[in-house]
Each structure stands twice: as C-alpha cells, then as structure tokens.
Write a structure and sequence with these properties.
mainly alpha; 12 helices; two-stranded antiparallel sheet; elongated
C-alpha cells in the first residue's frame, strides 16, 4: 500500500501557506506508506528533524509523519503480546506508540543503524513496562514481578529435564536463590491474576458446584467477646480476693446482690457499691488497653 507523496513545490496548506520546508515531501497519510518506502523516507525526515526548531509547524509535520510511517513497527512488536488478551491490544498499541515516539526523539543518524533496529527495543520495552505495572491484580514489588518470570522459565526448563514439577529446593538451586526467596516469589505470583469469589469451585464443568463465596464463613460474633475476655484476664488478676469473689459470684454463678451479701455477711447496698467500683476499674482498664 502506498500513499500520495508530493514534491515540495506542490506543498500548500488550505490556508495558502507552505506546509513544510523545501526539502521534505508532503505525505498525505504516513500510515499508508509502504514499509520499503518508509525506511528511505524515515532517514530523510529524521535527518531534517534534528535541525528543525522544536514547536514549529515544520518540526511538528516531520515528527508526526515519522510516527505515522513507522506505526507498522508498533503493530509488529505488539504481535508477540497478542495472547495476553485481545481486549488489551488497543492499549498495547497505544503504549507501543509511546515507545516509538521516544525512539524518534532519541535517534541519532550518526550511529549508522537502521531506525527500525533502534526503535523496536524502545517499543517492546514500553509494552513490557505496561504489562508489568498494570496487569497484576495485586501490587507486588518489582523484584517479585521479575522473579515470577524467572520462576516460570526455570520451572519449564526443569520439567523438561526431569519429567516432573520441580521442588522449591531445585528451583532455588537453579536460580541460585534461597528456599525462602523462592517461596516468597511463588506466593507473590498468586497476585498476578485474581479470581471472582462467585466462580464455581472444584472440577464440576456444569457450573452447579458451590462457589468460593458459598464456602466462606461469616464473622463469628464470639470473636469480639474472646478479645474482650483476653484483655480482661490481666485486669482481673489485679483485683483483691474479695473483689474477684464478688465478680465470680455475680457473673459466674449468676447470684443476686442479696445472695452475695448473705454469703459474705454484708448488706446488699455494700455489695452494690463494691460491684460498681470494681466494674468501673475494669472498664477503665479495658479502654486504656
């Protein structure tokens, strides 16, 4: 597929002013330029781009045309990531185009390398960064993201060699890491993809199996009581023998204040005052804990 290329003499904008500098051809649609022609024209445009003043119409035209002519490089690089999910390909192309723009801005003709050879690593690097930073369901440190890739490669190699899944120790020896580092990487790898709790569990392909949500228990209301009792234990130990006895009879044996008074040979009113003072002490201790 080719695009119309006009000589400089024919380059006139709708306003009647010249669209580009004299030694650059006018290209209607850079994306339609054949790859072979794009390689030749890119060198011409890159050469002129280095001397054009940034922000001018000429600079903008040269830069935009270079981007359009080399979008095929982005499509080429993006193909290797097509299995990551078709719904993301549009994002991949956009991110890859950012890499292309960086390559255009940083290319130096004096290096005597093809622009395509220079641009592909920028494009691929930008796409890899996109997947590394945005596709994890749970954010984990970058070193663990990279370790996940190394673990996958090592696992594949060891499975081929041994005919079985490798152990943690074998992975550690293969990657020259400790067992703890391998375990940390394996645990972190679980954060790459998140599953819905509404997904049916087990191997039932009919979809009638209980979901993971069905197997999740509710919060036990007794947990709060357990925490309170756990915090109350040391406070009870600070009470004297009579105060602990009154608490035990009132709340352990569920005796009335009158019954406690008869047991201790004191009045009910005195037991009431003792209970109030003791409970206030315990309540204050719990709030300060």
């Amino acid at each position: 597929m080719t695009s119309t290329v006009h000589t400089p003499e024919a380059t006139v904008c709708a306003t009647g002013t010249r669209a580009v500098v004299d030694d650059l051809p006018w290209i209607e649609d850079g994306a339609k330029v054949a790859p072979k022609d794009a390689r030749v024209l890119s060198r011409l445009f890159l050469d002129r781009l280095q001397v054009l003043e940034e922000g001018t119409h000429d600079h903008q035209y040269a830069r935009n045309t270079l981007i359009e002519m080399n979008l095929s490089l982005v499509s080429f690089a993006a193909r290797r990531f097509r299995n990551r999910g078709s719904g993301e390909m549009e994002d991949v192309i956009q991110v890859g185009t950012i890499g292309l723009i960086k390559a255009i801005d940083r290319f130096d003709l004096s290096r005597e390398v093809e622009f395509s050879s220079f641009a592909i690593p920028y494009i691929v690097g930008e796409i890899k960064r996109f997947f590394r930073d945005t596709t994890w369901a749970v954010h984990v440190p970058r070193r663990l993201q990279e370790l996940r890739v190394d673990l996958a490669k090592s696992r594949e190699t060891l499975v081929t060699e041994r005919g079985r899944a490798p152990t943690v120790r074998e992975l550690a020896a293969h990657l020259n890491l400790t067992d703890d580092e391998i375990i940390e990487g394996l645990v972190a790898a679980n954060g790459y993809v998140a599953g819905s709790i509404d997904t049916p569990g087990g191997d039932d392909e009919t979809g009638s199996a209980p979901t993971y949500a069905d197997t999740m228990g509710d919060v036990d209301p007794a947990l709060d009581l357990f925490e309170d009792l756990h915090a109350l234990g040391p406070l009870l130990q600070r009470l004297d023998d009579r105060e602990r006895a009154i608490i035990e009879m009132r709340f352990g044996q569920e005796m009335t204040q009158a019954e406690i008074g008869r047991e201790l040979n004191v009045s009910q009113m005195h037991i009431s005052r003792l209970l109030t003072r003791t409970l206030t002490t315990l309540r204050t201790g719990l709030l300060d804990a």
